[in-house]
Amino acid sequence: MKLIDRFNRTHDYLRISLTDKCNYKCIYCNPNLLSEKLEKMDLLSFEELLRVIEIFAGELNFKKFRFTGGEPLIRKDVFNFFNEVNDLKSKYKFTTGITTNGSLLKGRVKELKQSGVDSLNISLDSMNKSKFISITQKDEADRILSVIDEAIEIGYSPVKINSVIIKGINDNEILNFVDYFKNMDVNLRFIEFMPFGSNEWERNGLISYKEMKNIVDEKYSLSLLISDKNSVAKDYQMNDHLAKISFISSITDHFCSTCNRVRISSTGKFRLCLFSEGKHEINFKELFRKNYSNKDIINELHEAIQHKWEKHPEPEELSQMMFNNMMSIGG
Ligand code: SAM
Q: Given this model, what pLDDT does residue 141 score?
């Protein structure tokens, strides 16, 4: 049975945060404001996560799972977990991906590929050494560029590169990114800066996807690609170059009407939207502790999905909401 909400949206994509911890302190995520640090016992165990995946894939026909965080690769034995997920993939026919800052992948991309993770998104907000440090608090720009090379070589095709663009911080680097990556097998994804209660979002820091595209258009010609119906991105192929370029317009042109995603936080909270504050959402850790059967859990999920809002509130309102931290929900 499918997970369908009152706006007739079918959900078949689950994003799972493996941990709220991160080895970077990106200014737009702002982990410093996380109220509590979680203990290992608060997290869903790998065993519990495998059960979650079996429920969503086996009973609700989910076709895509993405692991994120915090930094998902910080979690101990995560590659073994990916191997176990891989065993479920052949049974239930779904795909997997991770979103990572790439820092812990150096020399390990082959292992990641062999563990069955299908797609790889690496976050990179600046190629400039000192700017990278000022955004992430880590001196690792070169390291991440070399991990991207490694990922291309191992055959992730394309390697997706996520860049959050903030006016006055890194909007002057958009063309540097394109110049550098244009002949590589990558998909550059320029993301609008999103507000969370825990970051210092201001409208004047927002650069819209249209403005970003205008910057690229000044130098390069792009052809619009037909995107998947649930895509969150406006996808383009660079004419005469290998790279694809996408713009993620969560704020100025949201894609809520075709949203097929739900999320689970690292502590097992089922989240209906990246921005929701968790009022109507259920807690897998609790359901497991109370020995709920899969059938009971599915009933809870069907009830919860009816509370998904039609679209997320306006950014000014989002920036005031305090319980939707990106670090624990997972980007
Ligand atoms: N640590 C991993 C990483 O760096 O990719 C995974 C977690 S991170 C929260 C997931 C994605 O969310 C990253 O691509 C990050 O750039 C993006 N992100 C975080 N805060 C954001 C914000 N305020 N606006 C837009 N994107 C954001």
A: 98
Judge if the beta carbon of residue 68 lies within 6 A of ligand 1.
yes
pLDDT tens for 14-53 read 999 999 999 999 988 865 555 556 666 789 999 999 999 9
199 in ligand 1 pocket by Cβ < 6 Å? Answer: yes
Residue 197 · residue 239 · CB < 8 Å: no
Closest ligand 1 atom to Cα of 22? 1
d(CA 261, CA 271) in angstroms, rounded, equals 9
Question: What pTM value is reported for the model?
Answer: 0.94
Question: In this structure, what are the phi and psi dihedrals at residue 3, rounded to the nearest 5 degrees?
Answer: -95, 100
Among 138, 164, 165, 318, say which to mutate for ligand 1: greatest number of ligand atoms within 8 Å of CB: 164
CA of 154 to the centre of ligand 1 (A): 24
The per-residue pLDDT for range 113-125, each reduced to its tens digit, is 999 999 999 999 9
Residue 96 Cβ contacting ligand 1 at under 6 Å: no
CATH number of 3-329: 3.20.20.70
What confidence tens digit (pLDDT) does each residue in 185-225 have? Answer: 999 999 999 887 666 667 778 899 999 999 999 999 999 99
Q: What are phi and psi of 9, to 5 degrees?
A: -90, 125
- Helices 174-181 + 209-217 axis angle, to 10: 50
pLDDT of the residue at 195: 80
Q: Is 102 in the pocket of ligand 1 (CB under 6 A)?
A: no
